[in-house]
Input
Amino acid sequence: MQLRYGFRLYPDAYQQTALAKAFGCARVVFNDAVRAREDARKARQPFPTAAQLSRTLITEAKLTKERSWLGEVSAVVLQQSLRDAESAYRNFFASLKGTRKGPKTRAPRFKSRKDARQSVRFTANARWSITDGGRLSLPKIGAVKVKWSRTLPTTPTSVTVIKDAAGRFFASFVIDTDPAADQARMPESDRTIGLDLGLAHFAVLSDGTKIDSPRFLRRAEKKLKKAHQELSRKQKGSKNRAKARLKVARAHAKVADARREFHHQLSTRLIAENQGIAVEDLSVAGLARTRLAKSVHDAGWSAFISMLKYKAERYGRTLVTVGRFTPTSQTCSTCGAVDGPKPLNVREWTCAACGTLHDRDHNAAINVKTAAGLAVSACGAPVRPEPVLAQREETGSHGFETGDRAA
Output
């Protein structure tokens, strides 16, 4: 499978200027491609092909006075920007037809220099390389300093250079991993576990373990509020406002990084210790429209489950998702009696049928494991009717291990 390995970049002043040119040129080519397609749609003409766009928007545009500066950056960056536009339209049309999984996607929009995320992608054709000194050599940019948190397992197929809203630069490498080597890294286990995700505790396991919720956003609210107040007092367009905006972005990035690190560490630990894991299919989008919205977003359940999915597939574990309408909080895990819905403030309840006192979350975790049908065979492998391994929806888009940054 394909994964992304992210590392922090530290370009000097000249390299930052060169990267800014690359970001700008890629953005212009993308916008020109979207505009060409929109003009064709309004004129009721066929969409121009990728070859036609490449010829008119890159090759011929470089010869004009208005677009001559496109020649200052690598041609691969411009070609990849066209591919991004083609992919965006392909996903949009697939979403309209209903052949694409997930929520509906809208038509591609024009990119702005004020977007929170700027990126350019270099493939093998760009002849980028990693120098003997450990720097990332990029065409027409130079050898950029990299903070290597670990070694790359194989030779990357491409690298994406990203600048986030906090002004930080990252290099995201696409790696083809070896399934046999990945599964050999994880020790064999005969354990299975059920997870109940919540807000009072981030997760409660079927063995009774309770994992506290770090509440990264709640803990940083005071600092974020002060940073936003300082930003609102600065005059629009001033340098002080730009500095205040950067301060706000860095504060939010610190919260996001801490949450992502927590998710990676916990998901890796669960995958390493258990052969089978059962989780509930929560309606996060629905819960995010309630009065608990801030706490739901702070927990980041969707990101955590996504990490469990791709790590289970990578390391040969089994991840089972239980339907969201399964009454895990209403069913007695001892006798199976359904005791009806209960308000959220009820954390303990006694079964009317057998008299067992239940912790709400622990009981739900046991029922999640039971509903998933996880059991352990004599050889230590999890068995259940028609086991289904977790599948990733977009290969290599979220595959970061502990310590990596988002691509």
Q: What stands out?
A: The CA atoms of residues 26 and 171 lie 17 Å apart. Residues 239-273 form the longest helix (35 residues). The radius of gyration is 25 Å. Confidence is low (pLDDT under 50) at residues 375-407.
